[in-house]
Amino acid sequence: MSEDACVSEPDLSRQLLESHRTLASELVAGLAERGYDDLRPGHAAVFLHVDRRSGTRLTELARRARMTKQGMMLVVDDLESRGYVRRAPDPDDSRAKVVKLTAHGRRAAGETRRTVQAIETRTRRALGDRRYEALREALDAIVSSTGHPT
Q: What pLDDT was estimated at residue 145?
């Protein structure tokens, strides 16, 4: 590859960032259309991983979402201040708390799931099944190959 070709092509990290921004924008727009214009893409980490009825410990939410505990705590704090979640005593361990959805949060979680599913369906349709699955496998391989914990 010539030096000029390297300069004109975006690097992989730029392409991944632009893809992320595109999908995040679709999520924000989809949620706004459904009446949730105060939600951000990062909130999906809670809505997609919390046990809707019993709640989930923050450390488990972080593990499921592949986030740090500190990062998840910030997301939960924000959602709690907006009335989507509350912290409640863990019935299995009185020293611990679980993150539970409020009624408003349960509705938002359902809409988030539907919006994410619509985005994934559209993306699969645009790429075709083979390319979609190859993309997911390649992204998993990139994450796995770094050796960095999420």
A: 87
Residue 100 lies in a domain: yes
Helices 103-127 and 129-146 cross at an angle (nearest 10°) of: 110
137 Cβ neighbours under 8 A, 6+ residues apart: none
Q: Which domain holds residue 24?
A: 12-142
The model's pTM: 0.84
Q: Are 127 and 135 in contact (CB under 8 A)?
A: yes
Query: Higher confidence at residue 2 or residue 29?
Result: 29
Task: State pLDDT tens for residues 64-84.
Answer: 999 999 999 999 999 999 999
Q: What angle do CA 86, 88, 89 make, to 5 degrees?
A: 165
3-state SS, 77-131, equals HHHHHCCCEEEEEECCEEEEEEEEECHHHHHHHHHHHHHHHHHHHHHHHHHCHHH
Domain tally, the chain: 1
Q: What letter would DSSP give residue 51?
A: -
